[in-house]
Automatic annotation (TrEMBL):
One of its GO terms (molecular function) is DNA binding. Pfam families: HTH_3 (PF01381). It comes from Pseudooceanicola nanhaiensis. InterPro entries: Cro/C1-type_HTH, Lambda_DNA-bd_dom_sf. Residues 17-71 form the HTH cro/C1-type domain. PROSITE patterns: HTH_CROC1. This is Transcriptional regulator.
Length: 85
């Protein structure tokens, strides 16, 4: 079974989330406040230690003021065509 964490798609999604947070001029702590979670959650997502599920992606996108499909598009474009689950 291939791992999705640390895959090219996961790394691209992580980079897109970081870029979106910085574009929104938010610190990890400010984003965490919007998400009603701890800053460590944001740090683990951004460092690649933690994957996020689809619902979390939607909530993150809303907190960042962007559409989830923008983030999905980045991950899709970076995921290898033959990536296995």
């Amino acid at each position: 079974m291939a791992k999705t964490i640390r895959s090219s798609g996961h790394e691209a999604l992580r980079d897109a989330l970081i870029a979106a947070r910085k574009t929104a001029a938010l610190t990890q702590e400010q984003l965490a406040w919007r998400l009603k979670c701890h800053q460590s959650f944001v740090a683990r997502v951004e460092s690649g230690e933690r994957r996020i599920d689809v619902i979390e992606l939607i909530v993150l996108a809303r907190a960042l003021g962007i559409e989830a499909v923008e983030l999905l598009s980045v991950a899709e474009g970076a995921t290898e065509p033959d990536h296995r689950i």
